[in-house]
Specification:
By secondary structure, this protein is α/β, with parallel strands linked by helices. It folds into three domains: about 90 residues, Golgi alpha-mannosidase II (Immunoglobulin-like); about 400 residues, Glycosidases (TIM Barrel), CATH 3.20.20; about 60 residues, Oligo-1,6-glucosidase, Domain 2 (Oligo-1,6-glucosidase, domain 2). The protein is about 25% helix and about 15% strand. The chain contains 15 helices and 19 strands. The strands form four sheets. It has an eight-stranded parallel sheet with strand order 12-11-10-6-3-2-14-13. A hairpin with a 5-residue loop joins strand 15 and strand 16. The protein is globular and about 80 Å long. The protein binds 1-deoxynojirimycin. This is Alpha-amylase. It comes from Intrasporangium chromatireducens Q5-1.
């Protein structure tokens, strides 16, 4: 492609993605992730809670999202910040009580927000009643059979049953001490030892989770984000496997896969990820959800599955509604890579009739305002500390705004992570003594872990704890600079990141961009992403992200309806994305 000097004539190729004529709410919804520990604290203990969330929901109506997804708030010893559930049918006292969950649901619905809760079916807490019963009942008991207990290898049984590593580092097996005080069997935990994996071959496990689904559906939730959806079924015999799975925060290989620079390693070759048997579970769940009628209650898979063709199997018409698209999150700030991942994602999703989803940040990865403050292609790490190279914060924010403007111009569903609407950076200098992610300890500090993206949200600049709660306590320290990003510094302020997000969400809804067709636009340089969205409400809209060094001309007559930053004499500067209606 050659650079066009001025006023390029926009020539869109034939759409590679058709317009979506199904108006089910979830197919184009923008869903905002709330991490309950860190959004808003009502009682001053420094830990966020459900009443804190309820009191602040109006912020999300102002922002203009369709739904919220709440990370786990269930009874839990918090060994993995709530992804270690001890009681799936109750609220942890740190976060409130069941009545607070009901009040949150009612208020959200009153404000027109749907509510998705997190479901953690791969593992429970070791403090779950079933696991306690399993320990007490001993080897060979029916109680043990609900989890994955095995005898150890070696003459004394003192070696783990196989060589699997935990995602958090170290062995995936822990040996128990039997009731008589002797060293006993081992149990599997793909994550922390305090997160024993369920045995999904067991009918009681299957029945229990259908019952848990109904418990929350009956209370009125609109859906579930399904944790580790690709992990429930293990290969029979639990064969050795010579790979360690890393959290999705760590590499740029996903993007490399997209361009076939590195051959994708099908995830199902692992004996514990993406086994074909998981799909029957989701078919049965879909039947449960469908029995609640319309508007649909939905399932969204958190499944780190390669390649895309396998990932979309989770969203076949009789399985889940959505799956997170982590390839997009892992793509470096390189135009060709972004175009490739957008095309591949939509084509793969279209092959099963599902919408794609888009996401740039969540509670497991370095925030994108910080990630993009490093040179494109920099190897991503699981956490950043004071000894690491520090990001270029201004550049990161500019690119983050451009990346979000690109993302929200794409058809399908989109997920936002709390604080990104403020342009919030990662905490990159947190002293180690505050770190709580189990990865930090289990890797001996080699991986700093995910605390840096989980820091409590700043609401008010001139208030203790930046207004997180009524006291100055926050469970993780807030960087001083967070005050400048506080909601009260941005609300109603033209050009702020909060107001940019509002404009994007309102314009996206008004133009129906979430259901538009998409085509590549020819005639721009290779460092420009140029797409044409088209639909009945929008007409033709150019979504153009300039990742190159030179400002880019817009076509004659283009009417800019949103821009991630100021234009320069009508041209689109470096690291800026615009949406422009075409005549
Ligand atoms: C994925 C969750 O997003 C993450 O936070 C958690 O540590 C693991 N699953 C284990 O539940």
């Amino acid at each position: 492609m050659t650079r066009t000097a001025s006023h390029p004539a926009v020539r869109a190729a034939a759409p590679f993605h058709p317009a979506d004529h199904d108006d089910a709410w979830w197919r184009s919804a923008v869903i905002y992730q709330i991490y309950p520990r860190s959004w808003a604290d009502s009682d001053g203990d420094g830990m966020g809670d459900l009443p804190g969330i309820t009191a602040r929901l109006e912020h999300l109506q102002y922002l203009g999202v369709d739904a919220i997804w709440l990370s786990p708030f269930y009874t839990s010893p918090q060994a993995d910040a709530g992804y270690d559930v001890a009681d799936y049918r109750d609220v942890d006292p740190r976060f409130g009580a069941l009545a607070d969950a009901d009040a949150l649901l009612a208020r959200a619905h009153e404000l027109g927000l749907k509510v998705i809760v997190d479901l953690v079916p791969n593992h429970s807490s070791d403090e779950h009643a079933w696991f306690r019963a399993a320990l007490a009942a001993g080897p060979g008991s029916p109680e043990r059979d609900r989890y994955i207990f095995r005898d150890g290898r070696g003459p004394a049984g003192d070696e783990p049953p196989n060589n699997w590593d935990s995602v958090f580092g170290g062995s995936a097996w822990t040996r128990v001490t039997e009731a008589d005080g002797t060293p006993g069997q081992w149990y599997l935990h793909l994550f922390d030892p305090k997160q024993p994996d369920f045995n999904w071959d067991h009918d009681e496990v299957r029945a229990e989770f259908e019952s848990v689904l109904r418990f929350w559906l009956d209370r009125g939730v609109d859906g579930f984000r399904v944790d580790v959806a690709h992990g429930l079924v293990k290969q029979p015999g639990l064969p050795d496997w010579h790979n360690r799975t890393h959290m999705l925060g760590e590499t740029d290989e996903a993007a490399a896969h997209v361009l076939d620079k590195v051959k994708p390693q099908p995830t199902n070759l692992s004996p514990y990820w993406d086994q074909d048997g998981v799909h029957e579970i989701y078919r049965s769940w879909r039947r449960v959800l469908d029995s609640y009628g319309t508007p649909a209650r939905i399932l969204c898979a958190e499944a780190w599955v390669e390649p895309q063709e396998r990932a979309v199997l989770y969203t076949r018409p009789d399985e889940m509604h959505q799956a997170f698209n982590f390839d997009f999150l892992g793509t470096p700030w390189v135009a060709e890579d972004l175009v490739a991942v957008i095309e591949r994602s939509l084509e793969a999703a279209d092959s099963v009739g599902a919408p794609s989803t888009w996401v740039l940040s969540n509670h497991d990865v370095v925030r994108h305002a910080t990630r993009l403050g490093y040179a494109p292609g920099t190897k991503r790490k699981n956490g950043i500390g004071a000894d690491d190279p520090q990001p270029d914060r201004a550049r990161g924010l500019q690119r983050a705004r451009a990346a979000t403007t690109l993302m929200l111009g794409l058809p399908g569903g989109a997920y936002l992570y709390q604080g990104e609407e403020l342009g919030l950076p990662e905490s990159t200098t947190m002293p180690d003594e505050f770190r709580q992610d189990p990865t930090f300890v289990r890797t001996g500090g080699e991986e700093l872990g995910r605390d840096g993206c989980r820091v409590p949200i700043p609401w008010t600049k001139d208030a203790p704890g930046f207004g997180f709660g009524p006291s100055d306590r926050t469970w993780l320290p807030q960087p001083e600079v967070y005050g400048d990003y506080a909601v009260d510094q941005q609300r109603g302020v033209a050009g702020s990141t909060l107001e940019l997000y509002r404009t994007l969400l309102a314009t996206r809804a008004e133009l129906g961009l979430g259901r538009a067709s998409l085509a590549l636009v020819e005639g721009y340089a290779a460092d420009v992403v140029a797409l044409e969205a088209a639909g009945p409400e929008s007409g033709r809209v150019l979504v153009l992200a300039n990742l190159g060094d030179e400002a880019v001309e817009l076509p004659a007559g283009a009417d800019v309806v949103a821009a991630s930053g100021p234009l320069a004499d009508g041209r689109v500067p470096t690291d800026t994305t615009v949406w422009a209606r075409l005549a």
